[in-house]
Amino acid sequence: MNAVKEIIWSVINNNINLEAEKWLEDFKQSPDQSLQVAKVFVMLPRKTGKLSVAINEDQQKALDTAGYGYIRNWTIDRLSRVWLLSNLSLPDKEQLYSTLERLFLSAEVNEAVALYSALPFLPYPEIWVKRCAEGIRSNIGSVLEAIMENNPYPAAYLDEAAWNQLVLKAFFTEKNIKLIVGLDERANLQLALTLVDYAKERWAAGRQVNLQLWRMVGRFINAEIFEDLKIGLQHYDKTEQRAIALAVAESECQPAKDYINTFPELKLALADGSLNWNSL
């Protein structure tokens, strides 16, 4: 993580003036960070500005390799706040937790976005699980996106119930499902059953289902789910039929596979390999 912090600092250096750079460095060297962090955290955008970060080719390559290439879409104040939080030097995890918890409780929207964006960079990752789960209950779109999209923390540390809540909330709030880190690795039977119920509610209301939903169902198709999938195959649009067919192809449910083969177009699409989750 230290190497990543160094890259991030080099990006920040390229995007702020000397006055802001000295201001951040002075804070990093300060012996009483716990007394200053709230004020510095709030003031930071006035020092750094709020423009999108500019990242050179070498920095982007290094960030991509480390798995943090997504910060290219951040603003400089967001990135600087994450750097500031990840470099806090406090005596122990209890003081770190209490200090950041105060920031969470008083945060306005952009501050909350930075706080949740910082979760993968903070020490003692186990102590932020409850805070992350609390964040999923937010109704603020940008805060949810900071938690759900391009954030490796939830997949790595949330328990199954909180993870499933995150995924379901992402569908409810129409977030970019493809940007959820660990989506395939954290798929589970309970989530599949919940998502099928959600799809049935959408069908009953005459609404479309996000095709990525079926990506998390395929491996868990059983006799019960198969009966529900028939509804989607028989009554809805061709695009969703193709998504369901792809899910069935990833399952071990032979009756469902046999049923898909009764649809010549779907059978052909699966056979020629043209179907995949990125193409849907």
From TrEMBL:
It comes from the Bacteria. This is EboA domain-containing protein. The lineage of its organism: Bacteria, Pseudomonadati, Bacteroidota, Sphingobacteriia, Sphingobacteriales.
